[in-house]
Amino acid sequence: MDKDKIRQALIKMLGKEKVLSEELDLMYYSYDSSFLTKLEPVSPLAVVFPRSTEEVQNIASFAFENNIDIVPRGAGTGETGGCIALKGGIVLDLSTWDEIVEIDAPNMQVIVRPGVIHAQLNQELSKYNLFFPPDPGSSQMCTIGGMVANNASGLRAVKYGCTEQYILGLEVVLPNGEVITTGGVKARCIKNVSGLNLTKLMVGSEGVLGIVTRIRLRCWPKPKARGIAMAVFDNLDEAPAAVLDIYQAGILPSGIEILDSSAI
After folding, report:
1. pLDDT per residue over 241-252, tens digit each?
2. Helix, strand or coil, per DSSP, at residue 264
3. How far apart are CA 235 and CA 31, in angstroms?
4. pTM of structure
5. Facing residues of 214 across strands?
6. First-to-last C-alpha distance (Å) of the chain
7. Do 238 and 153 have their domain in common?
8. Domain that holds residue 62
9. Domain harbouring 53, CATH code
C-alpha cells in the first residue's frame, strides 16, 4: 500500500486535521531524545492524533489488515528510540490526548489518558493533597503513557520505586484492534489477583504489545515537608560510602544524586 493511499485512508478515518503527511511535518517525528536517532533520523509514512479508544482501534485494525507498522508516541523525551518508526510506519501521537478522566481522592487513585503530562498531573493532584511519586527527570514534558510504556523511574526510584508499582489497571488496544482491560474493569482495589497479571506485562513493553489508552494510577499523600541537603567531598570515593552510611542510619531520602564537574 503506497503512501498516498495510506494517507487518504487515514484522513477518511480521522479527518484531515488529525493526519500529518507532509515531509516537513514528518521530520519532527524522525527522532527522539536519543543520540542515535539524531544521527540517523527516520521519518514515518504518516502521523495521526487519535483522541478516543475507538479511533485507536480503527487505526490498529487498518494497519493490521494492511501489514503496516504502527508506533505509539508520547512527548518524544525517550532516550532509546522507542517512539521512532524505524520501518516507516504510522506514528500515533498520543500527546494531545491529555484528559484527566477522574481523581478518586478517597481511594487515592486517578484515571488518565496517555497524553497527560507528569507535572500537570501532580499539579492537579496537589489540590487533593496527593501526588504521583515516580519522576523520570523530565516532569515538565514527559507523558504518563510514555512513563507506562518505558516503566520510567528516575531519582525518586530508590524510595518510591518505578512506575509499574503505581499502575493498577490499563485499557489497551492490541495490534489487531481488539481492546482489553487489565486490573479489573470497575475495580478500585489496590490488590487484584484474579486472572493473569497482564498489567505488569504491558508496563515497560514500549508499545510493542499494545497501545495504552487509559491508565488507572495509585497516588500517595504528599509529604508534609521537603528539604534539600548538599555535601562536599574532597575525594570522589567518599561519596558512595556516605550514601551507605545514610541508609544504614535508617534515613530513606527521596533521591540522592552525585554531581562532579563533568556532570554539572
Report:
1. 999 999 899 988
2. coil
3. 39
4. 0.90
5. 171
6. 49
7. no
8. 3-93
9. 3.30.43.10
